[in-house]
Each structure stands twice: as structure tokens, then as C-alpha cells.
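Input sequence (148 aa), recorded before submission:
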Amino acid sequence: MSITTRPVAEGDFFAWLGLYEGYATFYETTLTDEKAVLIWSWLIDPKHEEHALVAVDDDEALVGLVHYREFPRPLEGDRGLYIDDLFVADSARDQGAGSALIEAVRSIAQERKFGVVQWITAEDNKKAKKLYEEFGTRTSWVTYEIAL
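Predicted structure, C-alpha cell format:
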């Protein structure tokens, strides 16, 4: 299987939704219709900060997605790209889709002369961590959050 990446397009909604539902299921999160439509509206709005790329197979079927956004790095005096979501369909795992999506985000960051691409994953997501360690270095930072 050959994998290519491209920006998400308006006609991709239902294929994207299937992938994003898989992502939500993996993380045991409920994806409501309202939330899915809201996120989709962000992704197709060129003025919104959240962007998406999709991985496409030989048959032009969507097999993966990545959502990313730009962020400032004050101490470095530059900017970076942050990967919010990365998901590949079970049927396309170990076929290069995850790597292609990470590479595509890295290429965008390099074109913009940014300093870093960052992302997080669950501690127990061993398969993803194996892939991620091919691209990046695990940091010593600990994440905190305040639920509101």
C-alpha cells in the first residue's frame, strides 16, 4: 500500500468522521455529533488555528488523520507546531501512514522555519510511543491540567 498525505477537504467529512470516531473510541471519549461538527467547522475554516492533514491510500480512501496548530515559544523567540490528534485506522497500521503524517507536519514546520514539533500521548500507548521515538525525543516535562 502506498500512502500520501494532503490537507483535509470539505468532501472528506464522513471519512474523517469515521477516523475521528475511532480516535475517540481508542481514548474512551464520547464524540457527540455536536462536538464532531464543531471540530469539522474548525478544520475547514482556513482562518481557524486548528488544521488537519489526512493520509490517503492507493484507492484514495482516508486511512489516517493529524490535527495540528501553531504555537509561540517565548523563551526561544520562535514558533512551533503542536500535534493535537494523530490516528491511523487499524487496517492501515504498520503501513507508513503514521510516519507520513508526522513527516508532513515536520515539513510544514521546517518550511515555516519553526523550532519544534511537539505532541503528547498516553503513557500506556506502547505502539504509538514506538513510532514516536523514531521521530522525536521524549522530554522530561510533566503535563498538568485544570478541569473547568
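Checked by second reader. The chain has one domain: 4-132.
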